[in-house]
TrEMBL record:
Residues covered by region (Disordered): 1-20
Pfam families noted in UniProt: GGDEF_2 (PF17853), HTH_30 (PF13556)
Basic and acidic residues composition-biased segments: 1-11
Family statement: Belongs to the CdaR family.
PANTHER family xref list: CARBOHYDRATE DIACID REGULATOR, PUCR FAMILY TRANSCRIPTIONAL REGULATOR
Domain CdaR GGDEF-like residues, every copy: 172-284
Cross-referenced Gene3D superfamilies: PucR C-terminal helix-turn-helix domain
Coiled-coil intervals: none
Domain PucR C-terminal helix-turn-helix: 331-388
Name of this protein: PucR family transcriptional regulator
Entry-linked InterPro entries: CdaR-like_regulators, CdaR_GGDEF, PucR_C-HTH_dom, PucR_C-HTH_sf
Amino acid sequence: MTSSKAKEEHPPQLSARTMRKIERASGSLATASVSEMERRLPWFARMPADQRASVLLLIQNGVAGFCEWLHDRQQAIRLTADAFRSAPKDISRWVSLRQTVELVRIALELFEGQLPEMAANDAERALLMEGVLRYGREIAFSAATSYAAAAEARGAWDARLEALVVDGIVRGDPEESLLSRAAALGWDPALEATVLVGNPGGEDPPAIIYSVRSKAARASRPVLLSVQGSRLVVVLGGPTETGEDVLGRIAEGFGEGPVVAGPTVASLSEAHRSASDALSGLRAVVGWPAAPRPVRSLDLLPERALAGDPEAEWQLVDRVARPLEDAGGALLETVDAFLEVGGVLETCAKRLFVHPNTVRYRLRRVQEMTGRNAHDARDALVLRVALSVGRLARSRGLW
């Protein structure tokens, strides 16, 4: 019992002569490892000289740590961790974890082949083989820890950069800075973009972001998103008029309450316009309790105009009032009369002294020109507000 305990406290040691052999050979072992990596790994041979030199430095530190560990094997974890901490900070960016495992495997194979030849006897040979296996295990754990820490730091940086991009879209930052930051996140600058805003739902931003991001991944769409206080802003990439309800899927990641989607713009450089309309719609959507979820900002033009949004007023004039006035007095007069009599076709025809079919024809023309059906209650509201806004704008000499 006492003997086994003593062995644990004082494990077998290599002779001083063997240790000197290993220490003298440490440099050649590292160089031979790099040469073997260049021979067996084509991707390693193609690396720039400075990057290969960094790998050599890492291996030299590992060999030095191995020699130190042979002196005191209780320090294995600390020494292997030190070896990876001394590596270049950006090594994880140009050597993946899988590639690192390949490098470590080649180095260990070389150690297993050459170190036993330096042993003075079978006992030392067994001790060296055991040491290579144990130290290799510690190196593997240290590498995994180092890459996990790098990934965590990179994820935190990406999250901050993503928030900056979304904030820049909302503020309307200069196009160059916005696109360069988005490109760093892997966003295709030519991709269409749609901004959605709404309630984040909950007080755990990481969970909210994960929920929206997972829904976007299932729809095979890229997203940029940020929780800004009491609102969640999502920039969705790709077309939205595809027949699939991609906006509806993304809206499921928001909390309770309305979700407003701005217009789909041609690229990220125009996303500020989508964000501006979406935020305007979010402020005005309270005026339409029955609004769908999500609702397009374009469908909230009456409420936005009543809330004082000049952009909404301009769109109502440009999309409805101006086309009707340019088309001639008959269409405008018919729409006015139809709305005044509450949408009763026969009454409208009598007021205008025309056949009901003439009213039907004119209302079809109105729908073709404006996209609004006067028989639909919601579209009728849009037409009425648009005509009122148009007349007010004309009275002020705005068009």
